[in-house]
């Protein structure tokens, strides 16, 4: 732990007294009396003690500090030197320290002080001091460079010999011990040699310019930076939260325990939104992160105009260059500009100050109205070296910047092997150019003392910048004098301080002599009045780039981002999106005007595969290049950003076939990002048109595979030859054992040579694919953190805003997600406090949540007043219905017997439904509901006997006389197949149909009203006589869409948690959503064309559309004048025991199908329709078997 300054002062005073006590025993009594004064922090040593102390004595005190101090030895040494003014006799003090080191009493803190301070170089007479320093600690490369620059060639050669000796010592322990004893007069310890080797390796790495690795900041620097930027955000208001979060995340990744420190700062500043964010934020296990999990700055763009600061001109194009192709384009542009002649090039570099190495992160080069931002942090080093060589070798490119020497010095740390950096051509400082411009052709004004130069003609008010640049105003000649301290410093130090440093009470004669010399100096030294030109020179030299902009362009340059985290990737969302859209517009505008001058022919542009954007035409190919660039530079957010990009330019999906054709053409490009294939195969609109097996083969070669997407393409597209797919799998299997064949296949498809990295990724992806194909079932895995947040926020909205669920359902969901991610507990408490639900807040403050990803027991209060058969305002479960919960094998066997008995009796309707929890992957069925003969069986599919459940499913779906019905039962069959894919009856059930299909069939059937229906086209069918008012509600059918499982509804709430968009797990391939629903496609195509066909729809079609848009709850409203209570639809179905409201919902969800069928039967009897015949003739819902697995096995 570092000591405070008062504590350091006390330690120094104590050491001072200690030395005096040892050397002056006669003054013991006087010292004992005055040691009490040490407690006072303001003790003045000079006034309390009357004695003399020499430089040699001071070195002895410093030696005691080095021997007795611990972590603060260096601070104590520097403070002692400062407090006693030892640097006023620098030469004698350095010589005394060097003599002490040569005598064998060498200490790292003292020797490091002598060798690293530039002002001490003239007193260093022997390179052997560096050998001693190397034995004690690390040698700073800068100290060696400073010595070599100031000394002669002979000293330089000796330094080289010293380095050779140190290198030999690193390799030979015996030589190390010998030299250690020779120079330090003692035997080294065991650990010293390891530290010595480490320090020498680091030194030679630096000498060879190989030490480019990032280094962690010191703890002291980290905490200072964290507090400094917090002050800049909340006190000074100089930066925003986006800037502060980047800095804080960078520091906390290096020191995770600083997270609590930063949260305490935020609490102190009452920024509770940021407190909430940081409490739930998971810190990446990487000291130097590339990607940052924060939302992007809204309404921000690179051309945003600002009244207070200089803005980027809109005619300037900004290009980010990170890939080799992009950097090559910059090199070619520079060579072209160099051939054309004199060209001004703006040059600057940015680097992050949050790592020890401070390597360059970004190189900015601007010429010919284009600003190139070269990524020096993550770009290819060889390509960037070529870029820098070209830049600084071109003689016609005039490089301008503010202090470019500093940027070049930083570049040398990483690119020290580039010769042109040591002698760059025509690299000028902006202030030097201003001085040259100011002095040019001013001979005729030599007589005018007040004329500063040409600059005054353009900026006549330059004097107003005095105060802004902190330059002292000129005073009268007689009044301007140096301060007394400055005069003392200018007096010859050797004349004042010889071997003795006097105190205020001792040596009165010498003190008078000093005062006389100071007075003489005061009389002689008077500051002469500066001329206008000298003042101008001082102003220009001290002004930064921002102030120069203010003087010349009348606006300052905003420097808020100057010290931001330049190593972060990607840019913020709004910046990236605007940047790429602007890139698309700006770069293509002129070329398209040349291609298509005058008025555009929209038909021609569409035929050529072009699209219209804000007044100019952009080809699909250019859009695809931008999308590929987004994937390359955006990391994990790439897919989200590309989808956002496609949504922004909606016309891209207007002609799906042409857009897909251009995408397929672009896949032949070797630079294509592997996520581009994921985008193609995950897009629902593309799947119908993909019929090229080679495209699928490319997908396998470079990307991880979405099995469900490939399954749908192979199974749904008749143009794909299954034999070609089998051959493709054969080639891929051969590639796993023959890399040469894989290289040949890769070159054939992508026209470039692959790398070993490509092949290793392929092996991993294909191994994962084969494992998933061979697995019958998958282990349940918890949802990612972001999706759990979405579930929690969506449930909170339903509870407190929509008020569609109660506290018990909310508690179940909250307990389930907190069991998977404990960090969500704090978020829940904050939200409960926000909604002022103090009862729930009290419960969750006390509740202990067991860390189990899939809990089955929920220690939560239940509603004791809940009834199974009573539910006001909603459809109630008939009291005659008996609910049986089946868990054990015997219970399920009883259900199987009841099914067989019902099948033997003849025609029987069975209500069927399944429930599953959305808080797991894959979403296995939790409850199977079967309702027949006034009994509802709830089969526990989570904890029940699996073998018995398989028998039950085989029996149920193989019965000839059981009509199994529900709303969209095909989705339930697909959900069951996830876990019971070996049950053949699930793929081809005998009689499974949807209720809406039955209603439509009854409406079209022949009845006693058929003649009236045939004669009157305004009659929709048989149901027009039963529900004559159905047309009144058809206007609201848009709001009455089919009520699906609400798995996707919470996804939109992930953004509320400020979580980064993460890629889904591999098991997502097996989820119900990934399996999809073929009927959804039909619905979408109908919706897309409904606007055109609405005028020609017949009454029957309108009625069919009306019925298909009805969910089960709305159907119950139609038949029974009461809706179903759907509050438990998305509850936690894996909890045991189920709550009474869950049991009631599950039983009613299956029984309502039977109730509606009974109502339909009564209607059919009225209309003399045979409903049993219609039900038997309805086509049974079937699920296609996985064709991909069959083809894979055949290969």
Automatic annotation (TrEMBL):
<feature type="compositionally biased region" description="Basic and acidic residues">
    <location>
        <begin position="1080"/>
        <end position="1091"/>
    </location>
</feature>
<feature type="region of interest" description="Disordered">
    <location>
        <begin position="1037"/>
        <end position="1091"/>
    </location>
</feature>
<dbReference type="Pfam" id="PF01612">
    <property type="entry name" value="DNA_pol_A_exo1"/>
</dbReference>
<feature type="domain" description="3'-5' exonuclease">
    <location>
        <begin position="1101"/>
        <end position="1162"/>
    </location>
</feature>
<protein>
    <submittedName>
        <fullName>3'-5' exonuclease domain-containing protein</fullName>
    </submittedName>
</protein>
<feature type="compositionally biased region" description="Polar residues">
    <location>
        <begin position="1052"/>
        <end position="1063"/>
    </location>
</feature>
<dbReference type="InterPro" id="IPR052408">
    <property type="entry name" value="Exonuclease_MUT-7-like"/>
</dbReference>
<feature type="domain" description="3'-5' exonuclease">
    <location>
        <begin position="322"/>
        <end position="417"/>
    </location>
</feature>
<feature type="compositionally biased region" description="Basic and acidic residues">
    <location>
        <begin position="1037"/>
        <end position="1047"/>
    </location>
</feature>
<dbReference type="GO" id="GO:0003676">
    <property type="term" value="F:nucleic acid binding"/>
</dbReference>
<dbReference type="GO" id="GO:0006139">
    <property type="term" value="P:nucleobase-containing compound metabolic process"/>
</dbReference>
<dbReference type="InterPro" id="IPR002562">
    <property type="entry name" value="3'-5'_exonuclease_dom"/>
</dbReference>
<dbReference type="InterPro" id="IPR012337">
    <property type="entry name" value="RNaseH-like_sf"/>
</dbReference>
<dbReference type="GO" id="GO:0008408">
    <property type="term" value="F:3'-5' exonuclease activity"/>
</dbReference>
<dbReference type="InterPro" id="IPR036397">
    <property type="entry name" value="RNaseH_sf"/>
</dbReference>
């Amino acid at each position: 732990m570092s000591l405070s300054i008062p504590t350091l002062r006390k330690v120094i005073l104590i050491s001072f007294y200690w030395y005096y006590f040892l050397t002056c025993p006669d003054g013991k009594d006087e010292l004992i009396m005055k040691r009490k004064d040490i407690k006072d922090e303001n003790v003045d040593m000079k006034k309390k003690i009357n004695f003399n102390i020499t430089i040699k004595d001071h070195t002895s005190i410093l030696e005691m500090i080095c021997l007795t101090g611990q972590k603060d030895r260096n601070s104590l040494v520097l403070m002692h030197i400062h407090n006693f003014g030892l640097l006023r006799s620098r030469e004698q003090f350095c010589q005394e320290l060097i003599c002490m080191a040569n005598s064998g009493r060498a200490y790292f803190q003292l020797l490091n002080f002598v060798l690293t301070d530039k002002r001490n170089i003239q007193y260093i007479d022997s390179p052997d001091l560096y050998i001693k320093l190397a034995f004690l600690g690390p040698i700073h490369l800068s100290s060696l460079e400073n010595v070599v620059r100031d000394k002669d060639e002979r000293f330089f050669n000796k330094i080289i010999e010293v380095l050779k000796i140190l290198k030999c010592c690193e390799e030979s322990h015996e030589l190390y011990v010998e030299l250690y004893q020779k120079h330090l007069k003692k035997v080294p310890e065991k650990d010293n040699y390891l530290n010595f080797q480490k320090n020498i390796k680091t030194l030679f790495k630096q000498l060879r310019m190989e030490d480019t690795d990032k280094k962690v900041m010191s703890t002291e620097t980290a905490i200072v930076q964290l507090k400094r930027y917090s002050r800049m955000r909340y006190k000074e208001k100089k930066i925003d939260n986006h800037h502060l979060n980047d800095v804080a995340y960078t520091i906390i990744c290096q020191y995770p325990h600083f997270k609590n420190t930063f949260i305490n700062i935020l609490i102190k500043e009452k920024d509770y939104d940021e407190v909430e964010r940081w409490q739930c934020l998971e810190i990446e296990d990487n000291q130097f992160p590339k990607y940052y999990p924060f939302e992007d700055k809204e309404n921000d763009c690179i051309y945003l105009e600002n009244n207070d600061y200089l803005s980027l001109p809109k005619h300037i194009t900004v290009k980010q260059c990170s890939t080799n192709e992009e950097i090559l384009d910059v090199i070619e542009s520079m060579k072209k500009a160099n051939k054309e002649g004199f060209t001004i090039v703006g040059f600057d570099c940015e680097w992050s100050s949050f790592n020890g190495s401070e390597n360059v992160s970004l190189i900015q080069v601007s010429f010919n109205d284009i600003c190139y931002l070269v990524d020096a942090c993550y770009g290819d080093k060889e390509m960037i070296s070529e870029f820098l060589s070209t830049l600084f070798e071109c003689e016609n490119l005039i490089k301008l910047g503010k202090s470019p020497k500093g940027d070049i010095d930083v570049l040398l740390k990483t690119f020290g092997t580039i010769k042109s950096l040591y002698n760059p051509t025509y690299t000028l400082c902006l202030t030097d150019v201003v001085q040259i411009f100011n002095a040019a052709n001013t001979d005729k004004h030599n007589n005018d003392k007040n004329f500063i130069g040409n600059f005054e003609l353009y900026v006549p008010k330059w004097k107003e910048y005095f105060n802004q640049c902190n330059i002292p105003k000129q005073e009268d000649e007689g009044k301007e004098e140096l301060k007394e301290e400055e005069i003392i410093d200018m007096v010859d130090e050797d004349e004042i301080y010889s071997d003795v440093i006097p105190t205020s009470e001792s040596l009165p004669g010498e003190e008078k002599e000093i005062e006389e010399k100071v007075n003489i100096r005061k009389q002689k030294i008077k500051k002469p009045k500066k001329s206008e030109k000298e003042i101008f020179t001082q102003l220009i030299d001290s002004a930064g780039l921002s102030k120069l902009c203010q003087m010349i362009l009348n606006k300052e340059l905003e420097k808020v981002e100057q010290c931001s985290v330049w190593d972060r990737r990607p840019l913020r969302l709004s910046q990236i999106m605007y940047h790429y859209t602007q890139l698309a517009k700006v770069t293509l505008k002129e070329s398209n005007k040349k291609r298509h001058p005058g008025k555009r022919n929209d038909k021609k542009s569409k035929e050529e595969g072009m699209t219209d954007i804000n007044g100019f035409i952009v080809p699909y190919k250019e859009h695809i290049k931008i999308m590929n660039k987004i994937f390359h530079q955006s990391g994990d957010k790439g897919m989200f950003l590309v989808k956002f990009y496609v949504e922004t330019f909606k016309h891209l999906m207007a002609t799906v076939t042409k857009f897909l054709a251009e995408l397929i053409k672009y896949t032949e490009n070797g630079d294509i990002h592997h996520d581009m294939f994921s985008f193609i195969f995950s897009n629902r609109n593309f799947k119908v048109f993909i019929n090229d097996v080679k495209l699928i083969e490319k997908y396998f070669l470079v990307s991880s595979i979405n099995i469900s997407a490939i399954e749908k393409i192979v199974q749904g597209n008749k143009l794909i030859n299954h034999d070609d797919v089998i051959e493709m799998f054969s080639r891929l299997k051969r590639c796993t054992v023959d890399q040469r064949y894989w290289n040949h296949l890769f070159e054939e498809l992508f026209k470039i040579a692959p790398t070993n990295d490509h092949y290793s990724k392929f092996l991993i992806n294909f191994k994962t694919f084969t494992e998933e194909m061979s697995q019958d079932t998958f282990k349940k895995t918890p949802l990612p953190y972001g999706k759990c947040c979405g579930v929690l926020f969506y449930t909170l909205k339903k509870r407190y805003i929509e008020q569609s669920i109660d506290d018990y359902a909310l508690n179940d969901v909250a307990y389930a997600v907190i069991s998977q991610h404990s960090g969500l507990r704090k978020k829940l408490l904050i939200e409960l406090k926000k909604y002022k639900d103090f009862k729930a807040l009290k419960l969750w403050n006390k509740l202990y949540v067991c860390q189990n990803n899939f809990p089955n027991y929920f220690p939560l209060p239940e509603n004791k007043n809940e009834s199974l058969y009573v539910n006001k305002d909603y459809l109630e479960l008939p009291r005659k219905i008996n609910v049986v919960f089946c868990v054990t094998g015997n219970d399920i066997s009883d259900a199987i017997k009841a099914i067989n008995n019902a099948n033997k009796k003849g025609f029987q309707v069975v209500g069927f439904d399944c429930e599953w929890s959305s808080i797991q992957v894959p979403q296995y069925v939790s409850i199977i509901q079967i309702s027949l003969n006034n009994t509802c069986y709830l089969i526990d599919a989570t904890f029940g006997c699996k073998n018995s459940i398989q028998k039950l499913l085989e029996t149920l779906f193989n019965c000839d006389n059981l009509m199994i019905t529900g709303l969209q039962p095909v989705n339930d069959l697909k959900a069951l197949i996830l876990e019971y894919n070996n049950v053949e009856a699930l793929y081809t059930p005998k009689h499974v149909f949807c209720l809406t299909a039955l209603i439509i069939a009854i409406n079209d059937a022949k009845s006693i009203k058929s003649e009236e229906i045939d004669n009157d086209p305004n009659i929709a069918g048989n149901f027009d006589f039963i529900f004559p008012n159905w047309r009144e509600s058809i206007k609201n059918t848009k709001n009455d869409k089919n009520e699906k499982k609400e798995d996707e509804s919470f996804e939109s709430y992930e953004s509320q948690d400020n979580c980064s968009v993460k890629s889904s797990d591999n098991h997502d391939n097996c989820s119900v959503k990934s399996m999809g629903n073929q009927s959804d496609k039909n619905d979408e195509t109908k919706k897309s064309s409904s606007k055109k066909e609405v005028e020609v729809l017949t009454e029957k079609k309108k009625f069919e559309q009306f019925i298909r848009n009805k969910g089960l709850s709305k159907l119950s409203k139609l038949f029974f004048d009461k809706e179903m209570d759907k509050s438990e639809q998305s509850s936690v179905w894996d909890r045991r025991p189920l709550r009474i409201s869950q049991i009631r919902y599950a039983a009613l969800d299956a029984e309502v199908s039977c109730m509606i069928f009974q109502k339909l039967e009564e209607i059919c009897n009225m209309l003399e329709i045979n409903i049993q015949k219609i039900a038997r003739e309805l086509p049974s819902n079937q699920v296609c078997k996985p064709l991909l697995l069959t083809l894979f096995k055949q290969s």
